[in-house]
Amino acid sequence: MNLPTPKKLLFVLRQAPYGSSLAKEALDAVLATSVYEQDLSVVFIDDGVFQLLQKQDGSAIGMKSISKALSAFALYDIDQLFVCADSLHERGISPEDIPSTITVLNSSDIKNLFQQQHHLLSF
Amino acid sequence: MVTSVLHTVNKSPFTSTLLEQCIRRMSVGDCIVLMEDGVYAALPSQPFTEQLKHLAERSSCYVIENDCIARGLDSSQFLDGINLISIEGFVELTVKHTASHSWY
Q1: Domains of chain B in sequence order
Q2: Looking at chain A from residue 64 to 103, which residues have their Cβ under 8 Å from any Cβ of chain B?
Q3: Taking CB atoms and an 8 Å cut-off, how many pairs form between chains A and B?
Q4: Tens-digit pLDDT profile for residues B8-28
Q5: Model's pTM, two decimal places?
Q6: What is the DSSP string of B5-29?
């Protein structure tokens, strides 16, 4: 039996962690989608780059740390992870402040990434 | 009757103009508390730095400490004149001021 060709899906994470439930819901959606063996990528842009800061401690406000949940991506074989260089720069975040597993892309690379997808899911 | 207002801002200055809208409406003696995603305003890279620095010279400016800890922000990098405050300290501020205005 021929399996259908996997679709290219890009999750676009644009929101800071904790201020709304979107960051957490995006993580859940990414992990759930990974089960279906599609060609899955995740990109962090705008305030979404704040999700990548390493020293988060959600327990200070009674939440689970988003940064710890992100480390689950490797266990799910989600390894196409990208971040926007301009969004980092605008916020004064150096690439050394974020996990080394995430590829830094410039804005035009990110536009290209958008154009290569079958579906874009924005959070 | 002279009132002093406690202003709270809970949105990131990188994706919202709420901080600037709030600062523009503040009077002498008012106080601002940055909370939730509003705490990103304490970073020197944010777009309304000049307005906030100017405000800090004449008014009290606070960020909720636990919101900073949760987000992994390093308070040693915050703008001058922005003070950390606990939830208990914030409650005291609400009592000290005659009114509160939530910008959200």
Answers
A1: 5-103 (3.40.1260.10)
A2: 65, 67, 90-92
A3: 63
A4: 999 999 999 999 999 998 999
A5: 0.89
A6: EEEEE-S-TTT-SHHHHHHHT--TT
